[in-house]
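We modelled the chain as a single entity of 69 amino acids. Its sequence is:
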Amino acid sequence: MIILTLLGLTFFFAVGYFAYNFSQCLGSFSRLNKLLHTKIIGIAGVLIYVYLVYSNQNALIAALKQPLS
């Protein structure tokens, strides 16, 4: 169970970092950075990511457990 937790946390933080950087890139590409700072756009992307993870929590846990069983 500890391995599953470490794997899940590592994946969560890695994808969260990707969401942060990708949101900043989309903000710059769409010229939204003229209105908002890119770090604010990145934080909004991470908040959207956390919301999606929280709302699909059961499906994500089932997907993590499947290879181990």
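As a brief sanity check on the tokenised model: The mean pLDDT is 90. The two ends are 12 Å apart (CA to CA).
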